[in-house]
Amino acid sequence: MGNEKQNNVNGSSKNEQLEQYRVDDSGKHLTTNQGLKVSEDEFSLKAGERGPTLMEDFHFREKMTHFDHERIPERIVHARGFAAHGEFEVYDSMKEYTKAGFLQDPSKKTPVFVRFSTVAGNRGSGETVRDARGFATKFYTEEGNYDLVGNNIPVFFIQDAIKFPDLVHAIKPEPHNEMPQAATAHDTFWDFVANNQESAHMVMWAMSDRAIPRSLRMMEGFGVHTFRFVNEEGKAHFVKFHWKPVLGTHSLVWDEAQKINGKDPDFHRRDLYESIENGDYPEYELGVQLIKEEDEFNFDFDVLDPTKLWPEEEVPVKIIGKMTLNRNVDNVFAETEQAAFHPGSVVPGIDFSNDPLLQGRLFSYTDTQLIRLGGPNFHELPINRPVCPFHNNQRDGYGRHTINKGQVSYHKNSLANNTPAPASEGEGGYTHYQEKMEGRKVRARSESFKDHFSQATLFWNSMSEPEKEHMINAFSFELGKVMSESIRQQVVDMFAHVNLDLAKGFAEAIGAKIPEGPGSKVTKSSPALSQENTIKKPHTRKVGVIVSNQFDGADVSAVIDNLKEEGLKPEIISNKLGVLKGVDGKELEVDHTFLTCDSVLFDSLYVAGGKVIDKKFKDDTVYFVKEAFAHFKPIGATHEGAHLLEEIGVNNASGVVTGEDMNTFTSQFINAVSAHRHWDRELV
């Protein structure tokens, strides 16, 4: 279950590696941090019962000093995060492409730690905002820690890391009033977009449904950058990394996302935490796209450009392994917040490309951890510690855990026989790929990086009609919050280069001049980019079951049992907590009241009926149903519930299932839930 121990690559438990750091305080005596047992923890030491507190109260000073320093600076970006432990297994040896040890043996399990996050908001912001999501994975391998630090979007806003501070300054709350929080619907962001048009492709993703995922368990992950695989013979391939969720890639709708932020700002972390606790472990398959070095220039995009993706129809994704998240963290601060990721944490067989955004990240991430975690020893914190031994001549600094023995702390030396000594490549020593490099020192960008619109158009061309409509609405909402008419018009003119119908669609909504011109001539598309083509299954979907007393016990219980057997998660909703009784004596324990939950917190509704207690119960039920209907969710109803759906006129709509035969009803309802949304529904 969720608390079972992990097995690492050499068969021992990762928990055992960290056991000395894990403490259960229950049943223990209270002590100071020095181990001194404390006799009183309610009152400070005073000169008389009503006198002043004394300076010599070392316990008060230790307790208060620690409290005063409990917070560390939050991440500038990716501050709002949640994480879990798990394991990774490769399906087949990748020896042909890379010598990375954890990608060789299908019988070995590599421990992993994954941190998901929003990007723009602070630690206290909501989780279902329109934003990119971080997807950072730490592999604890025999050869050292490998960090795959990515996002749920395969491209980025900028091409060169020197512009990253400018981007973040533009995204963050505006400095004159510190508004808005965790949102890009404001002037400075869109001013940046209009004046840095390399952002066009990323903005298309950010305005799509990908930016409001249904769950962290239903979200793709991407390494974003082009890396290299290098095998034992020194042959290299360019590689991009993909995480493919086993449950498919699914999203919220915008109105629903906004309401969830008010109803449950912890929606995503709660979903992840509860799924792991319930044994519904999130699973992601690892895929790689591979390009031979000699084919580097055979595409209509630059393979090193971080604002470009490699269309899966041109460069297929090879699925090579699976990651399972099966244990929640024991302490969010010690693990999730103190986790330090770095794209430069690699193992033999994985190397870098000349992607200028990646090159800048290789500096920035270490520099960030130095200020956040108080010095150079952040790698010694338990969550960051490798499972393999580490030996070097680094010493001292804030937060040093290692107690190094001996008099030598330099290289080369004779006093310790020149140890620790470098390892040869044959002994597992990391060697950088010997790429031939030439050129003048310049501050410039390759001409091949200057196409900013063709892949933005490819993304638009790849979307289904509902997804296109959602994007137009997203642009309309975001730019509708922009005060400057000039910026609004600049953005309209910019995205007319992507697609004229798109630009016209939101130009009219925001009162801008309708663009003219031929628009883009790009007709290329990539069906893999549309969520319409994702995996669709009902497993772990939450079903709100609305029931009142005197329900048909046998039928309703049978439906609920059948839903559970198919992996759905039915939760009982009524007007008050307690036990509901059916006409035949069957009992149901109520999980939520109408007051403590909302239809937006469920993937679907099943209105089971029963004796309607009062008008408020009926009104609340109608509200839940109409809201779920407006969000295109599947709705099922039997008995009195079916009559209610007929009364409000939604009973014959797409995705609405009613019936009297419980087996037939359940089967049809599960199929409706599997579809996720029913976009062809007309709002009544």
Features:
single chain, 684 residues, alpha/beta, Catalase HpII,  Chain A, domain 1, Hemocyanin, N-terminal domain, Rossmann fold, 3 domains, 17 helices, 18 strands, 26% helix, 16% strand, globular, disordered N terminus, EC 1.11.1.6, metal-binding, catalase activity, hydrogen peroxide, Catalase_AS
CATH homologous superfamily identity of the largest domain: Catalase core domain
Shape: globular
**What is the terminal separation in angstroms?**
44 Å
Given the structure, what is the number of helices? 17
Arithmetic mean of pLDDT? 93
Portion of residues within helices: 25-40%
| Low-pLDDT residue spans | 1-13
Q: What's the architecture of the largest domain, going by CATH?
A: Beta Barrel
Number of strands: 18
Q: Radius of gyration in whole Å, from Cα?
A: 28 Å
Give the gist of this structure.
This protein has about 675 residues and is α/β, with parallel strands linked by helices. The chain contains 17 helices and 18 strands. Helices cover about 25% and strands about 15% of the residues.
Description of the structure:
Helix content is 26%, strand content 16%. The strands form 3 sheets. Strands 1, 2, 3, 4, 5, 6, 7, 8, 9 and 10 form a 10-stranded antiparallel sheet that branches. It has a 6-stranded parallel sheet with strand order 15-12-11-16-17-18, with helices on both faces. It has 684 residues and is of the alpha/beta class. Helix 11 packs across helix 13 and helix 14 runs parallel beside helix 17. It folds into 3 domains: 273 residues, Catalase HpII,  Chain A, domain 1, CATH 2.40.180; 80 residues, Catalase, four-helical domain (Hemocyanin, N-terminal domain, Up-down Bundle); 139 residues, Rossmann fold, CATH 3.40.50.880. The N terminus is likely disordered. It is globular, with a radius of gyration of 28 Å. It has 17 helices and 18 strands. Pfam families: Catalase (PF00199), Catalase-rel (PF06628), Catalase_C (PF18011). One of its GO terms (molecular function) is catalase activity. Belongs to the catalase family. HPII subfamily. Keywords: Heme, Hydrogen peroxide, Iron, Metal-binding, Oxidoreductase, Peroxidase. It is an enzyme of class 1 (oxidoreductase).
